[in-house]
Specification:
Uridine Diphospho-n-acetylenolpyruvylglucosamine Reductase, domain 2, Uridine Diphospho-n-acetylenolpyruvylglucosamine Reductase, domain 3, globular, alpha+beta, 19 strands, Uridine Diphospho-n-acetylenolpyruvylglucosamine Reductase, domain 1, 8 helices, five-stranded antiparallel β-sheet, 3 domains, 302 residues
């Protein structure tokens, strides 16, 4: 049980109890958080994280709510809803942008494009936040965040505020130091290095990526890519080859368009999606001898 009296004393009106989380996720799935605290700046995020560490309480930072599946029974630890979204482009002549971790990655890419700054074209259609992209090394179309990250400003549980480079974050394919050390640090903000390009050229590339995304990825409520692509393979093709394209459990469906996307058709439960995850894993293991690794995170009690 959470010490709600201590949380109330620490956060006051910002503390919300028994808060439904489905509304904060791209899949529109998930139970309630016993306690949720909204932060609107990186200062508030740092203070909230520090307070919870001092209270020796586990917490989850929730940004855009993509690439996660929240349990139907909800989350017993504190959820920090990260709305810190300030963006600062450097003065004219500099090719960098700094943003708080709650800033939308796609919106940041579009703002950069309008200023004739390229490097984020691949991110135009990605629904998550910059913080989530830093944690998961988000990417698309042959590029990822590690290619543009100059510095991530983090708050470490024991070391305080730090500025880490991509090398410090030990990036790999959808992998980072954060994935290996859950709960040990939070991303406060990041500085990205961009490249000067004609705005028309940037927009044309973004439009091409978005058109390809519309052709190959399903619309509607989903978590994004469900599984990491195994080396030299496509998770979607493997699931399709196992005969599961279009498979449904309740209102959850493996997309008929792209089998690495699992959809909420309206009233899907997390248990429905998890059932499809298990079925896809087993079918691919039986068919191809490959163990699929989740790209999404499982949040809450399972």
């Amino acid at each position: 049980m959470l010490p709600l009296d201590k949380l109330q004393a620490a956060f006051g009106r910002r503390l919300r109890e028994q808060q439904p989380l489905a509304r904060y996720t791209s899949a529109r799935i998930g139970g309630r958080a016993d306690a949720l605290v909204e932060v609107n700046s990186q200062t508030e995020l740092a203070e909230a994280a520090q307070t919870l560490w001092e209270l020796d309480l586990q917490f989850t930072v929730l940004g855009g709510g993509s690439n996660i599946l929240v349990s139907d029974v909800g989350v017993r630890e504190v959820v920090i809803l990260n709305q810190a979204a300030k963006v600062q482009f450097a003065e004219k002549g500099s090719l960098s942008v700094w943003a708080e971790s709650g800033a939308g990655l796609g919106a940041l890419a579009r703002q950069a494009a309008a200023r004739g700054l390229g490097g984020l074209e691949w991110a135009a259609g990605i629904p998550g936040t910059l913080g989530g992209a830093v944690v998961g090394n988000a990417g698309a179309h042959g590029s990822d965040l590690s290619t543009v990250l100059d510095m991530a400003e983090i708050l470490h549980r024991t070391q305080g505020r730090k500025e880490w480079s991509a090398a410090d974050l030990a990036y790999g394919y959808r992998q980072s130091w954060f994935k290996d050390h859950p709960g040990e640090a939070v991303v406060l903000g990041s500085r990205l290095n961009l490249a000067e390009k004609p705005a028309s050229e940037i927009r044309a590339q973004m439009d091409a990526f978005l058109a390809y995304r519309r052709l190959t990825q399903p619309p509607g409520a989903s978590m994004g890519s469900m599984f990491k692509n195994p080396p030299g393979e496509s998770a979607g093709h493997l699931i399709e080859a196992a005969g599961l394209k279009g498979k449904r459990i309740g209102s959850a469906q493996i997309s008929p368009l792209h089998a690495n996307f699992f959809l909420n058709l309206g009233e899907a439960r997390a248990t429905d999606v998890y059932g499809l995850i298990q079925e896809a894993r087993q079918a691919v293991r039986d068919q191809a001898g490959i163990d699929l690794e989740l790209e999404i995170g499982l949040v809450g009690e399972w």
